[in-house]
Design goal:
- Helices cover 26% and strands 34% of the residues.
- By secondary structure, it is of the alpha+beta class.
- The strands form four sheets. The chain has a six-stranded mixed sheet, with no helix packed on it.
- A hairpin with a 5-residue loop joins strand 8 and strand 9.
- 18% of the residues are buried.
Length: 291
């Protein structure tokens, strides 16, 4: 066999080894992509986003863990990492401090498998990870707690830009009965001043609606331009309004920016999947040109 033939045979072996390497790498990346997609739908908590004062539903179905047959007595628990938030067993129910009157699992849906937790009048402090459990009879009549669902709740304050003309009124939504205070910072000021506190009597400039959670600032002037913040009893922001007072302002321009906020875990999962897809495409391209 000539030296040229030997060199050609060695080159063919090298090319075949590269082919098998890239095929293996391609399969590995595809498998990783599939596994990542599966992980995002099973192991990672489901994300729910809401704004202060609204209702949030944390999904849960005990049939995903216990099958179709309902336990003799439905005993459901919802917990945050440190504390129990809500517990229901038959007609007995327990709600944690700070959640009284705001959390519920509808009994009429529980027996059909729906153990979703409904949180009314959600607050910034409700943000966090929630886990649901079903308590069932175990060996020797001991109670066993079975994990059902993990949910991440993100609660944001309301944000808006508004424009009014001189002499017009500004209506501030308080959104929740937990709103206790409104503060104001002038456009060219670095200081915050109290504009209103719950329980204050109406004045000639500031008036609380007798039935709704709304506050009206009357007869605006240029000195009313600035930032208005509605705060809860813990000093957390319920809403932020940037106000401009302009001559001949005919339209009340309002731009809600809450919709642009994306939970970081959702963005991270999307970024990871995009990188994996890109890697698979690049590897496929290389294999196509090598074969």
């Amino acid at each position: 066999m000539t030296e040229l033939s030997l060199q050609t045979a060695d080159n063919m072996k090298t090319v075949r080894k590269r082919h098998w390497f890239f095929i293996y790498l391609h399969c590995l990346l595809v498998g990783t992509l599939v596994d990542s997609s599966s992980l995002s739908s099973t192991s990672l908590p489901e994300s729910i986003v809401s704004t202060v004062g609204r209702q949030a539903v944390l999904p849960c179905s005990w049939k995903s863990r216990l099958g179709e047959v309902a336990p003799s007595t439905c005993h459901i628990q919802w917990r945050k990492p440190a504390d129990t938030v809500f517990e229901l067993r038959g007609e007995q129910r327990w709600q944690a401090e700070g959640f009284e009157g705001r959390v519920e699992v509808p009994e009429e849906k529980l027996e059909s498998g729906d153990c979703s937790l409904i949180i009314s009048d959600v607050q910034i402090r409700d943000t966090g990870r929630y886990e649901s459990f079903m308590v069932v009879d175990g060996v020797r009549s001991k109670k066993t707690r079975i994990f059902i669902q993990s949910v991440k709740l993100s609660v944001f304050d309301h944000k808006s830009l508004q424009s009014r003309g001189p002499g017009e009124d500004l209506v501030l939504d308080l959104y929740t009965r937990h709103s206790m205070r409104v503060v104001f910072q002038g456009r060219n000021s670095s200081q915050w001043s109290d504009l209103w506190m719950r329980g204050d009597e109406d004045s000639h400039r500031v008036e609380k609606h007798p039935l709704r959670d709304q506050l009206t600032v009357k007869k605006l002037t240029s000195s009313d331009e600035g930032t208005y913040k509605v705060l809860d009893e813990h000093g957390l922001a319920v809403s932020t309004v940037q106000l401009s007072v302009e001559e001949n302002s005919k339209a009340h321009r309002i731009h809600q920016i809450f919709e642009n906020q994306v939970p970081t875990d959702v963005a991270a999962k999307s970024s990871c999947s995009a990188l994996l897809v890109l890697s698979v495409l690049v590897t496929s391209f290389q294999i196509h040109h090598l074969l």
